[in-house]
Amino acid sequence: MVIATDGDLVIREMRDDPADYLLLVRWRAEPHVHEWWDPDDPAPTIQEVLAEYGPRVRGDEKTTACIIEVDGRPAGYAQFYRWHPWEEAETELDIRADPDTFGLDIHIGEPDMIDRGLGSWAVDLVCRHLEDDLGASWVALTTEITNHRAQHAYEKVGFVKVRQVLDTDTRDGQRTVCWLMERRHG
Length: 186
Description:
Elements: E1 2-6, E2 9-13, H1 18-29, H2 31-34, H3 46-57, E3 64-70, E4 73-82, H4 87-92, E5 101-108, H5 118-134, E6 138-144, H6 148-156, E7 160-171, E8 174-184
Parallel strand pairs: 5-6
Antiparallel strand pairs: 1-2, 2-3, 3-4, 4-5, 6-8, 7-8
Helix pairs in contact: 1-3, 5-6
C-alpha cells in the first residue's frame, strides 16, 4: 500500500516479500548505514531481518515499516510509530510525548542516492502524512550528535534540536549521545 507520494518519490508499506527483506539485509550492511544504525552489532542476516521487521510488516507491532522509492527504484527505509505504545523507550529518552507524538527513523540505503536531498524529501513527505492524515501533533526523533548529515537533513524540513539525550543504541558498548529533534505541526 502506498503511504504518500510527491512527484517521483513514493513511500510505500514494506511488503512481506523476500525481495523487500533482502533490501534491508543489503542496506544495513552498507557502511554509510551501518555506521549509524546499530553500529555495535554486525550487519543483520536475512533471518535477523525477518525476525526484526517481519512483525512490523505483518502488523503485529505498532511500527509501520516502509520502503522509499524514487522513480520506481527502492532507495531506502523509513519507519514511523506513535511514541506512547513504546513507553519504556519514550521515558528513557525523555521524549515527553503526548498521544499524538510520532517517532520516525530513516536511512537511504543506496550509496548512489545519498547526498542528493532524498533524505530530507522523504522525511518531509512522511511527516506531512503523519500530520495531515494521522493527526500528529509533532514528530520526535534522535540522531547521534556527530551525525551532521542527518541533522542537516532534518533541519532542512523543520526539525529543531531540543536537548541532548542518551539513546538506547550503543556505540563501543556505551549508549550514544544524541540530539532529540522535534518538528511541531501547525
